[in-house]
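During the first year of the project, the team set up a workflow for recording each protein of interest as an amino acid sequence followed immediately by a discrete structure-token representation. This format lets reviewers and collaborators read both layers of information side by side without switching files. As required by the reporting guidelines, we include two representative entries from the current panel. The first entry is reproduced here exactly as it appears in our internal archive.
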Amino acid sequence: MATPARAGRAIDPVSPGLGRTKAFGARRSRQNHGDVVTTSEIQISALGVDDLEDAHGLSMALNWPYRLADWAFAHALGEGLALRHDGRLIGTGMRWNYGPDFATVGMIIVDGAYRGQRLGSRIVDGLLAGAGDRSVILNATLDGLELYRRRGFEGFDVTNQHQGIAGPLTAPDRAYRLEPATDTDWPAMTKLDKSAAGMPRARLLDALAKVGRASVLRGEDGGVRGYAVCREFGRGHVIGPVIAPNFEEAAALIAHAMAGLAGRFVRVNTSARSGLGEWLEAGGLVRVGSEEAMVRGSLPRISSQACIFALCSNSLG
């Protein structure tokens, strides 16, 4: 959970538009010097498409890197909740269901003028209620750790955010068959993704096929052995998901996906246990932040064929 008024929270700063920043600053000033708002005056409802510009404003106040297009991409794939006061959006949260057994949650923001009223708890509880019996996975900032622990979440990993200006990455010495994905590859990529993630993410892959470009690693039989997706996000590009059998092949896929991005801003979100950290740092993608990966319920069962080496995003998984 995040509150825009807290300085130093952002781990990927951008320069907010002046008009939006002034507007949110003025709202906080009026709220901080006005009457105390009671919880009953704040309504919770669905986050709609018409809310996305204001949601983008909340994330800009946090210096989060999301573009309006990034909000639209995430919103189209999930279900969102909105907190409103006097008709104004003051908080958001999103959930993405992956089949009947799993879901992820994220993009949880409360306007800093309203912090200290347990509004983040209202959003999280609403998202969890909508998840039903699904196990829920998220990446938690330090601000949200205790909230999630009180709701039965347990840590299972650490997600590191690496970013920087793309330079040459030293690919493994072994020669791999790496190619741009074709339209006919996406069904095999979706099948491999389900095996690696342990949950059905076909809608996510379908959406990525429309906005990103993918690299595939082929086996001796020509089949898809791994893949990486590169798409525009935030200040530049993000590489993920990256699905591969091992570190060397994941590194080869990332290097292939970064081809043509020299001098541009690139971000990769990867598990601390992936083994990619030092290699990414050597290529100029420094670690700028970490979040605790947590689950309420059971983790998906994944195959030994391949695993996730980089996330689509910390929210979507």
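The second entry, processed by the same pipeline in the following quarter, appears below.
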Amino acid sequence: MSVDDAGPDGPLRAPVLHPRGTLGVIATAATVTGPVLHGLRAAAREQGYEVSVFSVTGHSGAAVMAAAAGLRLQGVAGIIVLDARLVAEMAPVPGIPLIPAASTGQYEGARRATEHLLALGHPTVWHLGGPEDGPIARARERGWRETLERHGAEIPPVVRGDWSARSGYRAGQSLAVEPGVGAVFSANDHMALGLFAAFTEAGMRVPRDAHVVGFDDVPEAAYFAPPLTTVRQDFVAAGRQTLAVLEARIDGVPAPARATVEAELVVRESSRCLRGA
């Protein structure tokens, strides 16, 4: 049972029953407030489930199993692990199916972004990457790198940020003085925003002097100057696919080890206009 928060349109609503029971979720600090959990919650509401979240620090097997034990005591119908790396640290939980959340196409999205920039005639694509120890950043970097390798393109050194616009700005300052930078794939949209600012200060205009593609399609991306070409992930669809796999496990029906939802390239002005125009 849960109670919705009061909102601008009125007082607290009556308790909402969840006839299908409760699902457990194990998250890390990096995923407990992110879009994967948001999409999973939305999908669970559609299906009539409550969601109970345990957040763990680090990736130790003891911490993860303690979270699973706590969820088991709550009588959850199944457990979803948001960070797939945690699954490797877990032993089976007796009587409770345990699965990773659906993959949202990090590698495939990066491949599509890089292919798009190469198709515009660029000899190579530079990469503004996320933190080197992050699994999402690594998957996106691998998609970029292996796409360049398949095309026989030169692989420039990765310029790294920490997902923030500030780090994208600093990386952009370095890229702006690097000769031959005509296309940049940024591992997320916020770093691309900082990149835009640094390029503008250096006298470079996007898309006249360089094409830029981001990743995530944050709500603001369509309103960047110029609007940002980016990779969109449907996190609600990913949540639905995750629930479909979990329900199959609950019912004893064969199901894939992990669901996958394809990412979509959304083309906007940052890569649409001809350079040099």
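For the second entry, the following points were noted during internal review. Residues 1-19 have pLDDT under 50 and may be disordered. Strands lie at 22-28, 50-56, 79-81, 98-100, 126-129, 159-160, 183-186, 211-213, 230-232, 264-266. Both points are flagged for discussion at the upcoming steering committee meeting.
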